Structures are given as C-alpha cells and as structure tokens.
Amino acid sequence: GSRLRQEDFPPRIIEHPSDLIVSKGEPATLNCKAEGRPTPTIEWYKGGERVETDKDDPRSHRMLLPSGSLFFLRIVHGRKSRPDEGVYVCVARNYLGEAVSHNASLEV
Hints:
Elements: E1 9-15, E2 20-21, E3 28-30, E4 33-37, E5 41-46, E6 49-50, E7 62-64, E8 70-72, E9 86-94, E10 97-100, E11 104-107
Domain Ig-like: 11-107
Protein name: ROBO1 protein
GO cellular component, one term: plasma membrane
C-alpha cells in the first residue's frame, strides 16, 4: 500500500557540485550524489530550467552518470550560443520529497 515504510527516507545530497572553470571543447563533470530510499532520481537545472541529457536526446553532449553527476563530453561555447555556461543545481527526488544541492557555476 501507500503506507510509509519505516526504512524509507527522503533524499539528501551527500556530494554537492562545486564551481568549475573549464576550457571550451574540454570535458567537464559536475558532481552530485544523493542518498534516499527508494533511490532518488536526479535531475539537473541550469538557471531554473531542466538540463537535457543523453536520456532526453541521444545526440546531447551532456550525460547523466549513474552516480547522478552531470558529465559534459565537451564544453560548447560560441559567440552566439553558450549553452553550458551558467549556474547549475542538482535535484534529487523520491516520493518522500526532494533535496536541492548548492549552486555550482560553470564558467568557460
């Protein structure tokens, strides 16, 4: 049933992402680890918008790693488009609630 099982607990972030300064075209990883039971799902947001990863679009250069970290195959940065620069947060959710990481800024 939907009764709360005692061993279930809401997510909490155990590893927060930290600020990164990266070179254009280089790979980069924003770390995030969360615990919870049931295992929380991890989503990344940048400037309040959900970050699309390879699961949403197979051609994406951003991958969600099994640990919950966000991996960039190469940082994309042009004169007109700077899709990777910005402030990121990682959000872990299960049915008991959600946990939001510290902000991490990615600068190119």
